[in-house]
């Protein structure tokens, strides 16, 4: 990872954690356990890659940090919800996430479901609040775009296909579509949000969309490679889960070497989409290399 990317990730992580701390207070009373589970899931670390994508995309258009960081927090809330629900026994049934017991393991299944529900709804509360942007129409555009990315035409669809993937007999095209939905849609929203906040031109929005498309696919191939070759301690979660669950992945279909080449091609292609932004997009370019070379 480049020095500037490391610094930017650490900076954004601090900033977004500040917002998350504020919107996720410690609550007393009978709902205290729910809030504790929400905080446990959200504040346990994580690379905060999506928040950096929002902020770095916004920075292309000189979007004030206090606006982009709230959108970044909303994305991280949706992402955390997806991880909590993904780990449930009814889905991937995982015991470890971000180096600690999954929410249903630490608390219980009902609490994990409810914590996810509350994180998801909180994300939209954060987006819709005037502090996110003074222009209400722009806030509605953000709310709508995140709802579409997360919902039944986006991440939820991807997860539904993923859960059925062992029986669907998907080919490369089918798996690519699955991954674009499951992982790519939220990543694409991060870049789209920068464009919305920054009143980007059609050409700029299009370039960001193309970048996010290739980045999301490269990121997911790297994720699948890490499931095969990664280290559980570094990853903070179990490995070799895909094969055990009989899941079809691009790595499974192409083999490790071809998948690695494909990830690199996508990363290079993602960076090329940023040409029209010139040097301003250095951080987003660095992220393409990080997406495929990361160890966690
Ligand atoms: C929240 C609307 C909504 C639906 C949930 C369960 C579900 C539907 C979707 C699961 C989607 C999922 C788990 C996709 C995997 C994406 C992925 C590669 C996650 C790992 O992301 P990292 O590496 O994780 O950025 P950290 O921990 O660093 O944040």
Structural topology:
Blueprint: H1 3-23, H2 32-42, H3 49-59, H4 65-86, E1 96-97, E2 100-101, H5 103-106, H6 109-128, H7 136-150, H8 155-168, H9 172-197, H10 202-229, H11 232-235, H12 241-244, H13 250-254, H14 256-272, H15 282-293
Antiparallel strand pairs: 1-2
Helix pairs in contact: 1-3, 1-4, 2-6, 3-4, 3-9, 4-6, 4-9, 7-9, 8-9, 9-10, 10-14, 10-15, 14-15
The structure holds geranylgeranyl diphosphate (GRG).
The site of geranylgeranyl diphosphate has 20 residues, from helix 4, helix 8, helix 9 and helix 10.
Describe this structure in words.
This protein is mostly helical and 296 residues long. The chain has one domain (3-293): Farnesyl Diphosphate Synthase, CATH 1.10.600. Helices cover 72% and strands 1% of the residues. It contains 15 helices and two strands. The protein has helices at residues 3-23, 32-42, 49-59, 65-86, 103-106, 109-128, 136-150, 155-168, 172-197, 202-229, 232-235, 241-244, 250-254, 256-272, 282-293; strands spanning 96-97, 100-101. Strands 1-2 form a two-stranded antiparallel sheet. A hairpin with a 2-residue loop joins β1 (96-97) and β2 (100-101). The relative contact order is 0.12. The mean pLDDT is 96. Bound molecules: geranylgeranyl diphosphate. Geranylgeranyl diphosphate (GRG) is lined by residues 46-47, 49, 78, 81-83, 85-86, 91, 98, 120, 150, 155-156, 159, 182-183, 220, 223.
């Amino acid at each position: 990872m480049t020095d500037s990317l490391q610094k930017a990730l650490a900076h954004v992580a601090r900033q977004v954690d500040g917002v998350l701390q504020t919107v996720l207070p410690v609550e007393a009373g009978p709902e205290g356990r729910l809030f504790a589970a929400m905080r446990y899931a959200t504040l346990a670390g994580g690379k905060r890659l999506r928040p950096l994508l929002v902020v770095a995309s916004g920075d292309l258009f000189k979007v004030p940090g206090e606006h982009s960081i709230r959108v970044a927090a909303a994305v991280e809330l949706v992402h955390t919800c997806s991880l909590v629900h993904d780990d449930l026994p009814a889905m991937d049934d995982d015991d470890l996430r971000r180096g600690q017991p999954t929410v249903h393991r630490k608390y219980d299944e009902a609490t994990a479901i409810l914590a996810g529900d509350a994180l998801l709804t909180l994300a939209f509360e954060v987006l819709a609040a005037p502090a996110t942007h003074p222009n209400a129409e722009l806030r509605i555009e953000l709310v709508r775009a995140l709802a579409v990315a997360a919902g039944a035409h986006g991440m939820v669809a991807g997860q539904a296909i993923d859960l059925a993937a062992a029986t669907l007999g998907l080919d490369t095209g089918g798996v690519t579509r699955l991954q674009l939905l499951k992982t790519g849609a939220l990543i694409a929203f991060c870049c789209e949000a920068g464009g919305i906040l920054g009143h980007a031109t059609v050409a700029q929005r299009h370039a960001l969309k193309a970048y996010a498309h290739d980045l999301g696919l490269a990121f997911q191939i790297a994720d699948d490679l890490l499931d095969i070759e990664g280290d559980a301690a570094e990853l903070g979660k179990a490995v070799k889960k895909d094969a055990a669950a009989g899941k079809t992945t691009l790595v499974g279909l192409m083999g490790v070497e071809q998948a690695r080449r494909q990830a690199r091609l996508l990363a290079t292609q993602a960076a090329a989409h940023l040409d029209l932004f010139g040097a301003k997009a250095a951080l987003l370019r660095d992220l393409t290399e990080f997406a495929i070379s990361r160890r966690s």
